[in-house]
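Recall the central idea of this unit: under ordinary conditions, the amino acid sequence of a chain determines the structure it adopts. In this exercise we apply that idea directly, starting from the sequence alone.
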Amino acid sequence: MALNPDICIRGAGIVGRTLAVLLAREQLNVTLVATPDKPNMPDVRAYSLNGAAKALLQDLRCWPNGPAVTPVHQMQIWGDQGGQLDFVASEMGVAELNWMVDVPDLEERLNTAVQFQTKIEVVNAPVAAPLTVVCEGRASQTRTELGVGFDITHYEQHALATRLVCEHAHQCIARQWFGWSRVPGLAQPQAEILALLPMGGEGGREVALVWSVHPLRAQELMAMSAEDFAVALASACELRLGGMQMSAERAVWPLQLARAERWIGPIPGTSKQSFALAGDAAHSLHPLAGQGLNVGLADVAELVQVIRAKEFWRPLHDIKLLRRYERARQADVQAMGLVTDGLQRLFAQPGPVWQNLRNWGMRGFDRSGPLKHWMTQRAMGQSADRADR
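Accordingly, the structure predicted from this sequence is:
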């Protein structure tokens, strides 16, 4: 394909590649800007994908299979003083709540889909196009160059992630604990959130860990030997899965809530070129609800739908057209951000009054019936009508 694209996508991660394949199916010429992977970085990522994301990837024939996908039949959440929540797929009238997907397998399938699309050209530098879609992640350099502000709320937590093999099978249950830990050098206990996510397929014993802890606690955990770390983790999760053994390196990164001040606009210095942000370049959420990639893929689905439904005479760089995408997605992202931020702050409040309140709330929500069902549907993507298209 000659370098005369309709759309240039900056960022070739899961969101960028999914968008490229979808746009190519709309008979649009796409350039996909890919940058070299960072060397020596342990990749222990695993994504929780809902029904809307699964349908989108299945439509592209990019949905993994075998042990790369693990269905989640149940989710168990424990509070810090006896509160507990249980979400069971069968009670929701579905076979699975969501699916845990291994990143390398999904990326490989998307890479193959890109290679077989003659409408996509992979390049290593940006190319001028009527529409540029920025999918570079939360540290996007292009977003900065465009002069788009990124409103960031830094949490006093880092996420520590790794993989472990457990003594007992995970039984396709996602487990999460809200608790507290003593951190050397700090007078007060610090809130933390520990999640063990089932991996390796049904009947597997592998789990992905995401442990949100105070930065000093993260340093302490990273400095431990693999054996000591596994023992500390097994204790923190109450030996629910028995003994544990690390099967991957540990990775750590700071957590934040962030949103771009605008998601669309004209490219400065041009007359017929515009941009749109998608995925983590537009927003970043706390991982406690596991909705990050679901939200990013919903951005992709909405943008493609807006382009598909545009008037034939309206160009791709038309700001009124792109505003339809911005309006449709900002409300959903803001709502999800409020939920995750509210939960994080609620469980970060020390003292018995807050403990009693939040654990009373957990028990009440667990018995709430219709409200619990509605919230579960939202997380599963069942009520996100526009994202399902």
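The longest strand covers residues 150-166.
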